[in-house]
Amino acid sequence: MSATDPTFDIELKLLLEGVFQRYQHDFRHYAVASLRRRIGQAMDRFGCRTVSQLQDRVLHEPEVFAQMLQYFTVQVSEMFRDPPYFRALREHVVPVLKTYPSVKVWVAGCSGGEEAWSIAILLAEEGLLERTIIYATDINPQALRRAETGIYELDRVAQFSTNYLQAGGRRSLSDYATTTEHGILLDRALGQHLVFADHSLATDSVFSEVHLVSCRNVLIYFDRELQNRAIRLFTDSLVHRGFLGLGSKESLRFTRHAGEYTEFRPDERIYRRR
Fold it and tell me: Is 116 exposed, middle or buried (0-12, 13-18, 19+ CB in 10 A)?
């Protein structure tokens, strides 16, 4: 069965409904075009000819569902990805955050943790990390476990370092890591300010009041209804005049909550709650 088969979307809807009923993970409002491609990859991976065959395995074999999470969600990131965004945080957002006695940051959809660790390094260099807690959340337990280790492959370090310097890094990225047989291990002192937790933008509610929400390259995989739900969560989480950062291809325009924000740094997709 291919994604162009007329029954593919019917079976896909049944799969997503089954996952919600069986595991309480809700992917029913994820963008269909992206799901078609990734479910097709999962069918190849598990040797299933149809989506219904894949559904049978997912519903009856919890270990298959655990492996399926990497196909339902996109686990692609890198440290200091889109350097202008991090430079804007450093130069324009951090000075405001410094006016608070303590700071909370929420990195939503943290994937492998690269962005959360990047923000920790940035705040450390700006003298703000000691009074900051960074909540990094995702729905994928495997991704969260990997993120918490702070271990990344050596072949990714060159790109990380380039991004870091372009983002206004004040030192060398190697100052924050040691080399191990498994890759680079980020400084444990940074990790003391990171809290990794399971949280779904589709089904869970607000869990803390925060000063900055960074949710980048996540909303593009949601349909309009789920985008609006996620932004509602961010809005309810943010303090008065708090900041929201989105991905370079994401925007609050045409969403239900656009009027609740001003464009603080529009080129870098940083908004401020009214």
Answer: buried
